[in-house]
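Because showing beats explaining, we let one protein speak, sequence and backbone structure tokens together, and leave readers to judge.
___
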Amino acid sequence: MKIGFIAYPASGHLYPMTALARKLQARGHEVICIGVPDTESAIRAAGLTFIPYCEQEFPSGSLAEAYAPIAKMHGMKVVTYTCEKVFAPLARAAFKNLPRILQDTGIEALVMDPIHFFLELVPINMSIPYVQVCCALHLDASGTTPPFIFNWPHETTPEAVSRNVEGVHQVVQTLSQVLIEATHYADSAGLRSAWQEPGSTQSKLAVITQTPKEFDFPGIPWPSQFHYAGPLHDDEGREPVAFPWEKLNGKPLIYASLGTLVNGLDHAYKAILEAAEKLQEVQLVLSVGLSINPDDLRPTPPDAIIVRAAPQLQLLKRAALCITHAGLNTTLEALAQGVPMVAVPIGYDQPGVAARIEYHRVGRSLEIAALTRENMLEAIREVLKNWSYRARARYFQKVIKRTRGLEVAADRIEEAFKTGTIFPPI
């Protein structure tokens, strides 16, 4: 079968989607990955066929320029900016270009990232079967649990459910600019207005999340086509990252990274470094990305290693603790190695992931706006010294090994497309 993959153009989405694409390719399917030019190197590094689209609207280097302002933001500002300045123009370009790509390539079925909000209108209009794979934390629109953009604890009281429902409305409101673009496409395609109802465009064949069921909040009333799979990573298919391995001194390792997008908050890195300076019994590896000049963070602990990019999977295999922005991929990769965490959620789905880290007792979560050397140091010491955090992380290590995320996701996709069910335009 000729299967097209459309991943959101960010590393936290590209890595799991390309791993899944490789799995289906290994099973004999012809896999084609469709993406903006900035995703080409990551897709080709995974050994996959790359087809560019939206080249005029998003030429090489444009994503870095579009994302640059959010490096210093946090909270709802990150979400609002991204929806208006990235999601909406990307949706407009994709609605324009994707139909031609699908027609020219003869793609028979699609695997889509639902963070490409409303892009499923294209395969609906073209009667192409599609499944959705949640690389970020999935959204519970029922109000049973808090929407992922908030770090609210999971509670079941009527007041909490009402709060959650109002939170879902806030999520929908932030997508207003994307909804405008979707409406233009739907009107031009002759799709009826029913598609705007929440959940109406969700795949009827399969919706798959890489979050293990055991790591989610309980009690969510998912539809029958919703599947928990497990992490979609396989330690392969990533561009190589140089690292000074000879500088590791054998002390217990703390690996710290605040992601690749919202990673320009100086005070967060300084809090981590100042806390590490008080912990002479450990060694810190800090990955700062491209938004921070490492020289601006001095003085640093004498044995700390500061890099712009790090081979995360390899370092997590050696780590005693991970300090993370609570991106879902980093969180699941840490748990896959049995590594507890100190989470500092900054934006997007990170508050929801951090809330699950706290709920399942695999780490601590700290508020980015109130982050200091003192509370960072206290959290690090608690997680390192309290064995229960590592015990819980090792429990999830066993869970993740048992879930076989890639195999389960590939099975569900093949089963979904085997039915041959194509749903008519709504």
Residues 229 and 409 are 6 Å apart (CA to CA). Confidence is low (pLDDT under 50) at residues 422-426. The chain has two domains: 2-230+404-418, 245-402.
